[in-house]
User: Fold this.
Amino acid sequence: MAAADAPITPEGQAAAHAARQAKLRKRSSGRLMIFGFLSPSLAILLFMVAYPVFSLVYYSFFNFSALRQATMKPVGLKNYTFLLSDPELWERFVFTGKFVFICVTLQMLIGIFVGYQLQKNFRGRDVIFTILMMPMMLSPVVVGFLWRYMLNSEWGIVNFLLSSVGLPKVDWLGQTNAALWAAAAADTWMWAPFIALLATAAFRGIPETIYEAAEVDGASPAYRFFRITLPMSAPVLFIALILRLIDSFKQYDLFVALTGGGPGSSTETVSYAVAKTAFSYFYTGEASALAVILLLIITGLSLILVRHLTKMSEKY
Amino acid sequence: MTNSRTSMVDLVTRWLILGLLIVYTIYNVGPIFWLILSSFKSRMDLFTMPPKLFFTPDFSGYQSVFGVGAAKDSASSVGVFDSLVNSIIVSVAGTSLAVFFGTLAGYVCSRFNFRGKGDFMFFVLSTRMLPPVAVLVFYHLMFARLGLADTRFGLVLVAIFANIGLATWIMKGFFDGVPKEVEQIAIVNGYTRMYAFTRLVLPMVKGGIAATAGFCFIFAWNEFAFASILTTTQAKTLPVKISAASGATGIEWTQICAAGVVLIIPVLIFFYLIRKHLLMGMTFGVLGRR
Assistant:
């Protein structure tokens, strides 16, 4: 604007020209940086995600087995109609849903509670913090085996402790409902510390001055927690919720080691069913269709949640 | 009157909190304690009822994990040490590259506004949401065709892709915490943006890079689904190897527990070193600048 208002002299024009050039150069260097910095990630993700997902959609319309790759028969939507009319699939969705609900609820409650205690400064906090975080450092397979070992109905430590206080022994992994709770207990054991970690980080990010102001107004500890701490860290807690919701929804490793899908096929998650269809039965076409259904649900779910998150964090 | 009542309430709440904390600590630490204890138990001691707290330690689990001593040649420990080496190579290479690319992408997402940024951010995050088994159906074929099946290189590729999303998002959060004025002043003083990034901004987020690496390492180190389907003999990682340790003799509990302890040690050390950064900036940049 300033350049346009100035009298049109050769010097003025030259200066305006130079300024414009500099601006252009800066912008193009910005462009170059955006392009250069994003392209490696984009290349890897396109190759490792976009390409497989498109192929998956393609395969889902075929009767196709990875073992006999020569015979691919187009079947249209048959894979989908077969899957969606299969009552077993609905059972898996119901089981997965129950598992997700129990896990996420327990983990959020425990995580926020423990995180709130850990944000205070006390002696030995760093060591206690690190020890409490240990379950999430373990491999899910090890976690599965460890809990399977502890929950063994005959020589497991859990049943030993139960019977030593006079409670009846439970066949944890032999009954559907008990196995559901066992899996949820193992998943919660592993991941509640993760929520606690994120919660602690979020709680410590709240400026002390806000608490001090509340103190002056004579706010109770409960008021501090529910009216300041929770709302002010809501976006981070919501991210934690999204991550756990999606991760427990796609849980696979834990069930491989803990229950092997049993008893029967009653503790098979949807992910487990995909793996079984694809790599035990080698019904690749059907597995692709099931994977597409799973992808649609998870992408839809995360789209809704992330949109909500963006709205939420705009308020801050 | 009111005063004494509130102090009663306070006292009860405090005891309640303490009680809950104790219960949680037992639930949290107990299994870890049991894991460590069981890793030293011989086959006999594992199944005794009541469980033994004191016993002569048996190191066969550790011997088979490290491929040394008497247990080295037992059927269940063949190739376990090789799988530990595979685990180290794959997770170190995968983590470094994922953090490197994620740092670049996170910086751009934090500093620039470009067309499709929101879509890019969501696409990156969605890779973190992707169920491994879904893409595995196709990876299984793709890796075989490209000669990547059962190779460490293939697993490194997987480790990069699986962690790049998380790395980008965490790093964006840390970059958001660095004031934009840093680059503005550098540019006004005639330095390039690249110089400002490498010499000024990067040193300021060192802790963030460490925290990101910590997280990616945990996931890469413990990854199971991909490695279990995409490897057969040569490139097996330790989590995959031990899950197969249930042969004719039943599940090798001692070996699994020992492997669990071995697997947790590097993560534990790493975690303790970066604990400060985990507690400072793990907010994904969603809390705004304070």
Residues 246 and 298 of chain A are 7 Å apart (CA to CA). Chain A touches chain B through 100 residues (CB under 8 Å).
